[in-house]
């Protein structure tokens, strides 16, 4: 049913498309290096063929001078857990080259893919991209991580079935040797799932299984639903003669008539010889800057806030994590209020939180959020220990709040003292310091003293 995909070849949230609007309320998307997505297809022997897609933001990579221009080196890694046990992993290195830096734009993306044959079940997927040139400064984290939780259902062997829908940026005939080759086509994935002004055509790929063959024909009904699952558009019905017991459903359509918002593409396959039907659907987003410059008046509705549109893609776990990460920027009452909200309430809370802290709403970048996320990512990369993410550690908290120290004193342990570090900030309150001690010599440094107002003060530590 498909060509072999090479092993050396994996939404994050809405990316830089949202930076075009002057109504932008935050900048989480600009800080993300890549987006992760997946789609499941039927494989022989009761297995599920899972494709995992990466889309890397080219302008977020660091290009360094090379003999023939500039090059970015990055490593992609995948870990597959079921549910907590590591059952498979892959990693590979990539090089992207350009003759001049001016040719790199925010719209340029670098897709990649990896595939596994799996038993049905629940899986946790961890995707990692490491910018191998990005190691010069503390403000430049070298790795970005994304996670997906998937429940892979088995495909029936004796009744009509349809696969997941792979959303794509491009479909074309291509070389069977390409990692993106499937059934005569190159399918370039779109794990961001964003379409609109800059990507007006939505392409998709799906597979239909267990058609009654020999037989006459089958059809595919195609519907576009809004975020409430109401039908907003019906695409032309597709009817085909059967050429075997399986078929590929692949096509594209313009999103020009859709306003900015969240949508679902729903496919209903029907075997007209047996009357059996099978349904699949997937979420996608439309973003058109013009909707926010001059919003159309819709009966009973308003155009969705851009930041809320971004947080629409967050799972409940991701919402909880996003709120927990902000604990250092909120007082206790704000944190308690946020934690008690429903999922939809948390989305609105996060959007409003960043909107209120944007130092200059007229610009396309929320500088405050950009700084926070760069520091958070560095804290995760530098200070994570014993399964505790770096932003939850004492050093991570101080780094997130106050940034890079002007100076650090490192003291290694001996027979009488433990290892400790003293961080100095010369421009805060005339000069302050933070003292961190590794009490158990495991690298877990805890704050024991600071001269910063409001911090732990124990001069005799």
Q: Can you tell me the CATH class of the largest domain?
A: Mainly Beta
Number of structurally distinct domains: 2
Question: What is the makeup of the main sheet?
Answer: 6 strands, antiparallel
- Named at the architecture level, the CATH assignment of the largest domain is Sandwich
Number of helices: 8
The strand count comes to: 23
Backbone shape: elongated
Gap between N and C termini, in Å?
A: 68 Å
Helix fraction?
10-25%
Low-confidence stretches: 1-31, 136-141, 294-304
Name the structural class. Answer: alpha+beta
Radius of gyration: 25 Å
Mean pLDDT, nearest integer?
Answer: 85
Strand content: 35-45%
SSE blueprint and pairings:
Elements: H1 28-31, E1 34-42, E2 48-57, E3 64-66, E4 69-81, E5 86-98, E6 109-118, E7 121-131, E8 143-152, E9 161-162, E10 166-173, E11 181-182, E12 185-189, E13 194-196, E14 201-209, E15 217-226, E16 231-241, E17 247-254, E18 261-271, E19 277-287, H2 290-293, H3 306-311, H4 316-324, H5 332-340, H6 343-356, H7 367-383, H8 394-402, E20 407-411, E21 419-425, E22 432-438, E23 445-450
Parallel strand pairs: 13-19
Antiparallel strand pairs: 1-2, 2-6, 3-4, 4-5, 4-7, 7-8, 9-14, 10-12, 10-14, 11-12, 14-17, 15-16, 15-18, 18-19, 20-21, 21-22, 22-23
Helix pairs in contact: 4-6, 7-8
């Amino acid at each position: 049913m498909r060509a072999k995909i090479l092993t050396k070849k994996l939404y994050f949230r809405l990316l830089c498309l949202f930076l075009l609007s002057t109504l932008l309320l935050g900048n989480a998307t600009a800080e993300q290096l890549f987006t992760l997505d997946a789609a499941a297809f039927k494989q022989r022997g009761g297995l599920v063929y899972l494709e995992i897609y990466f889309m890397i933001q080219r302008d977020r990579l660091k290009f360094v001078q090379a003999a023939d221009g500039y090059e970015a080196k990055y490593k992609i890694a995948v870990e597959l857990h079921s549910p907590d046990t590591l059952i498979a992993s892959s990693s590979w290195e990539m090089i992207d080259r350009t003759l001049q830096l001016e040719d790199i734009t925010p719209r340029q993306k670098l897709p990649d893919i990896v595939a596994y044959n799996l038993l049905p079940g629940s899986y946790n997927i961890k995707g990692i991209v490491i910018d191998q040139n990005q190691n010069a400064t503390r403000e430049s984290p070298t790795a970005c991580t994304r996670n997906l939780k998937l429940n892979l259902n088995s495909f029936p062997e004796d009744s009509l079935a349809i696969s997941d829908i792979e959303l794509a940026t491009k479909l074309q005939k291509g070389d069977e040797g390409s990692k993106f080759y499937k059934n005569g086509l190159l399918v370039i994935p779109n794990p961001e799932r964003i379409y609109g002004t800059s990507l007006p055509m939505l392409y998709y790929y799906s597979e239909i299984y267990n058609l009654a063959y020999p037989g006459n024909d089958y059809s595919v009904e195609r519907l576009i639903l809004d975020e409430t699952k109401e039908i907003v558009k019906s695409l032309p019905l597709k009817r085909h003669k059967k050429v075997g017991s399986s078929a590929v459903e692949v096509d594209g359509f313009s999103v020009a008539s859709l306003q900015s918002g969240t949508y679902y593409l729903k496919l209903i396959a029907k075997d007209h010889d047996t009357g059996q039907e099978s349904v699949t659907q997937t979420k996608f987003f439309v973003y058109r800057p013009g909707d926010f410059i001059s919003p159309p008046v819709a009966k009973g509705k308003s155009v969705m806030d851009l930041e809320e549109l971004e947080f629409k893609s967050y799972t409940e776990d991701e919402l909880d994590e996003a709120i927990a990460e902000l604990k250092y920027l909120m007082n206790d009452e704000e944190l308690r209020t946020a934690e008690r909200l429903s999922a939809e309430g948390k989305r609105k809370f996060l959007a409003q939180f960043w909107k209120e802290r944007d130092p200059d709403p007229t610009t396309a970048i929320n500088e405050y959020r950009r700084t926070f996320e760069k520091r958070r990512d560095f804290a995760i990369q530098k200070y994570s220990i014993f399964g505790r993410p770096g932003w939850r550690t004492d050093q991570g908290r101080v780094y997130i709040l106050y940034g890079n120290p002007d100076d650090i004193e490192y003291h290694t342990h001996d027979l009488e003292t433990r290892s400790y570090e003293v961080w100095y900030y010369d421009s805060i309150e005339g000069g302050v310091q933070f003292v961190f001690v590794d009490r158990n010599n495991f690298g877990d440094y805890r704050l024991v003293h600071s001269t910063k107002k409001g911090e732990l003060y124990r001069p005799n530590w």
